[in-house]
Amino acid sequence: MVELRQRIDFAKIFARDQVFKLKRAWQISKSGKNAMTKDPAYNAANPKHFIPMIEKERYGERTETFDQMIAATHKHFWDPNDKRFIDFDQPFDMENEYIVDPRIFCIELKIPSVAEKLTEKQKIKLNNESFRWVLSQILHGEQGALSLSASLCHILKDPGAQEYAANQTREEARHVTGFTNYIKARWGTPYPAGPTLGRILEQVVSSDVVYKKIVGMQMLIEGLAMGAFGMAHQDTNDPLLKTLLKYTMSDEAFHHKFGKIWADRTIPKLNQTERNKVEDWSHTVFHDLLYNLVNPWEKKLIYESVGLDHKFVTEAFMKEMDRDDIIKEEMMQSNNIFRVLCKTLLKANIITERTRKHYAEFVDMEELQAEDDEVAGIDIANEGLDILEKINKERKVA
Ligand SMILES: [Fe+2]
Ligand SMILES: [Fe+2]
């Protein structure tokens, strides 16, 4: 009797193992074939397939592509909850001081009929609340970057690429904590994600396709963040924010590099159909983000905080402002975030003659082409790197 039971148990296990073996053969046959992967360093499995990750050969197939970036991680380490790095108790007079330059961050104050309705204190409030909205979107973007890099850990097959993605996940997690701490110190709570950013983040993070993840997050959203951080760093009156941005940028410069390496190794090898696909998708995302920048519908809650009716602000915006003119005027500044984005796409060859005209409406493409290839804000990132290296050395001695 005992023997029979044992035989049945073994038979059951054997049957399950056979199913696993079939599943393994099937998943491995599909592995590494994620759309448009042209370089082994970016080989990726289907996110629902774990078995290719435990193929014994895979562990030895580590490229050296990301080793330098991985080795540098400890140098730019920082902890948003450690006062040796950053102290969120530093005060700022939110009632009487502009937290950032309103000429850059508060488009509503450029609308004459809106500005004339407000006292100086209300203008400060509108500007600072507007910036709370910007930082809240950055916080949601950081959460998107955290979830996206974690998802890259599930699919990248090169163990070095996976280690890089795990490091990025950890760095994005400290950005989420850092911006949460800052918003808490200055306003208490963040605003919700605007529908445009929320929609784009959802699309990019939940996509199974590597190029959408890398172009969408590592190039477009990370590029946008580097531009926004650089602008805010230059135009803020709050030293605490300057420190937070500097440290964050030290990490972000590496994230941007990961996307750039992908583009350099992938774009030249795409066939025409694949290339068009990446180019068109990038333009759609760029266009959505661009118009979101000057979109008064998404900021209803902010207007209410100074007693303005959002319908009135929207009407005044429509009557008194030309959206395309504002964009063109802002793009003239060399650190404008969308100009920075255009440059990123152009230098990565994701803008060709076919789509150039869409961007040329707003920015001088010849001028962009002639500029160097450096990511925006790299000088601030390097400054942060030096400070962090020093603090980390002192921490080790202590
Ligand atoms: Fe980040
Ligand atoms: Fe990042």
Number of strands: 0
Overall form: globular
CATH architecture: Up-down Bundle
Q: Any idea of the CATH class?
A: Mainly Alpha
Number of helices: 17
| Count of discrete domains | 1
> For the CA atoms, what is the radius of gyration?
24 Å
H-E string: HHHHHHHHHHHHHHHHH
Output the CATH topology. Ferritin
CATH superfamily: Ferritin, core subunit, four-helix bundle
Low-confidence stretches: none
- Per DSSP, what share of the residues sits in E-state strands of 2 or more residues? under 5%
Work out the helicity level.
55-70%
Hetero groups in this structure are: fe (ii) ion
Instruction: State the end-to-end CA separation.
Output: 69 Å
Average pLDDT, rounded to a whole number, is: 88
Query: What structural category arises from helix and sheet content?
Result: mainly alpha
Biggest sheet overview = none
Structural account:
This protein has one domain (41-397): Ferritin (Up-down Bundle), CATH 1.20.1260. It has helices at residues 2-30, 67-72, 102-105, 112-115, 120-155, 159-186, 195-205, 210-235, 239-266, 272-293, 300-305, 310-320, 323-331, 337-347, 353-360, 365-370, 378-397. Helix content is 67%, strand content 0%. It contains 17 helices and no strands. With 398 residues, the protein is mostly helical. Residues 145, 172, 222, 252, 255 line the site of one fe (ii) ion.
